[in-house]
Automatic annotation (TrEMBL):
Protein species of origin: Caballeronia sordidicola
Cofactor list: Mg(2+); Mn(2+)
Family the entry assigns: Belongs to the DNA repair enzymes AP/ExoA family.
Domain (Endonuclease/exonuclease/phosphatase) ranges: 4-248
Residues at the site labelled Important for catalytic activity: 218
GO BP terms, alphabetized: DNA repair
InterPro entries: AP_endonuc_1 (IPR004808), AP_endonuclease_F1_BS (IPR020847), AP_endonuclease_F1_CS (IPR020848), Endo/exonu/phosph_ase_sf (IPR036691), Endo/exonuclease/phosphatase (IPR005135), ExoIII-like (IPR037493)
Annotated site residue numbers, Transition state stabilizer: 149
Alphabetical UniProt keywords: Hydrolase, Magnesium, Manganese, Metal-binding
Designated name of the protein: Exodeoxyribonuclease III
Length: 268
């Protein structure tokens, strides 16, 4: 099974690119972030025509998450991260697909920091850590995928110098991500590429795409029973090179039926 995550950065304006990617790469499950569209504006007809069912949690102009499944509709199991009934942001959606729970998340950016946006980021991260622990302990095979808005280590960024004050690079953000992994989750992309600088995001400034000045902030985490099934992981960089592209590229993993075999790499 091929599972992917993609911060689309506006699903209406990037729909053609999304459909091209779905046709070319044919993932079985897709987690989308930053839809930037209300529920009624989600392009379900076009997505169904491409062979996918979907659930989505939209929001006007900001945020928004969705899960697509090839050949059928995902079975929604949760909409919104628990722990704060006053949180109105559309940042988490979860579904049962193929015997697994798939959690799609868009963690807050947190800039500027310090300040209320960074406080919200850390509070949301704490809620995720608490909920992820329950998922991990549930015994269900679980995938957590999305834009985590955290650069885990200095090996996940082209250069730390100009990002020192950014919320994505702060020690508190990194510590939260480390605590999440300490529950037992496997960072699939890093597990497959342990010694490589591999990026998933290139901002629109200073020709960072052309110079491969990127960040790794889109992650796919696997529960303990899924980690041995990891066969491969990579980044579909060609999508970032399309006209009017999102500043993210899709990240994908492949899971086999058992724990045997060796992971493969692809970053094309």
């Amino acid at each position: 099974m091929k599972i992917a995550t993609f911060n689309i950065n506006g699903i209406r304006s990037r729909l053609a690119a999304l459909l091209e990617w779905l046709e070319r790469e044919s993932p079985d499950v897709v987690c989308l972030q930053e839809l930037k569209a209300q529920d009624a504006a989600f392009p379900i007809d076009e997505i169904r025509a491409a062979g996918y069912g979907a659930i989505w949690h939209g929001q006007a102009s900001w945020n928004g998450v969705a899960i697509l499944a090839k050949g059928g509709d995902p079975l929604e199991s949760r909409r919104g991260l628990p722990g704060d009934k006053n949180d109105t942001h559309s940042r988490y959606i979860e579904a049962a697909i193929g015997g697994m729970l798939i959690g799609c998340l868009y963690l807050p950016n947190g800039n500027p920091q310090p300040g209320p946006k960074f406080d919200y980021k850390l509070a949301w991260f704490e809620r995720l850590i608490e909920y992820a622990a329950k998922l991990y302990a549930s015994g269900h095979p679980v995938v957590l995928a999305g834009d985590f808005n955290v650069i885990p280590t200095d090996e996940d960024i082209y250069n730390t110098r100009s990002w020192k004050k950014d919320a994505l690079l702060q020690p508190e953000s990194r510590a939260c991500y480390a605590r999440l992994l300490e529950q037992g989750w496997t960072d699939a992309l890093r597990a497959t590429h342990p010694d490589e600088r591999i990026y998933t995001f290139w901002d629109y400034f200073r020709e960072h795409w052309k110079t491969n000045s990127g960040l790794r902030i889109d992650h796919v985490l696997l529960s303990a029973d899924l980690a041995p099934r990891l066969r491969g992981a990579g980044v579909d960089r060609w999508v970032r090179d399309r006209p009017r592209a999102s500043d993210h590229a899709p990240v994908w993993i492949e899971l086999g039926a058992s724990g045997k075999g060796k992971a493969t790499k692809k970053t094309g």
